Amino acid sequence: MTEQEKCNAGLPYRFSDPEMVARKTAAIRECERFNAIDGTDYAAQYEQLQRMLGSVGERVWIAKTFNCDCGKNIHIGSDFTGNHNLTILDIREVRIGDHVMIGPHTLITTVSHPLSAKERREYYAWAKPVTICDDVWIGGNVTILPGVTIGEGAVIGAGAVVTQDIPARSLAVGAPARVVRTLEEETQQPK
After folding, report:
1. How far, in Å, are 76, 149, 160, 165 from residue 187 at the CA level?
2. Can you give the residue ranges of every domain in the chain?
3. CB of 53 closer than 8 Å to CB of 73
4. Would the pTM of this model clear 0.90, i.e. be above it?
5. Can you give the pLDDT at residue 184?
6. Residue 182 and which of 33, 93, 117, 119 are 20 to 30 A apart at CA?
């Protein structure tokens, strides 16, 4: 198997492999192009997102600065807002539903590295996909780790570190994130 095939199968792979490095280098260039576009030229930004990402719905907006590891593994539905300094390490697939809002300084990562120093010295990594369902709101400074699914209508509080799946219509906060309550369909703002 190639290192890319190992990665896609969820097996440990070497991220120093030339094919993996070339993919990351291409993503760096695409992100530089996106981030160089005038911040008020929404049409040009959207066109660049369509070129660089796997799929993009309608009314998708990502603020500067945006960074990713591949781009083609990111699939975003319609009515999406990604605020400033969004980083998506999409070594594996990241699927984001419709009507999702992501706060500033958020990291979504599909990749991690071994606990073994010897394996890290040999440039090993592993990756698992991330899914964010429809109508999710992710606060600022959130980290979402590999393999996580965030259920429909969930809210992730600012600063949370999401290490495991979050059920639909749940409010999760903290590091590691834990569910503190279930949300009703028409939840009122806190007083």
Report:
1. 25, 22, 21, 22
2. 3-182
3. no
4. yes
5. 83
6. 93
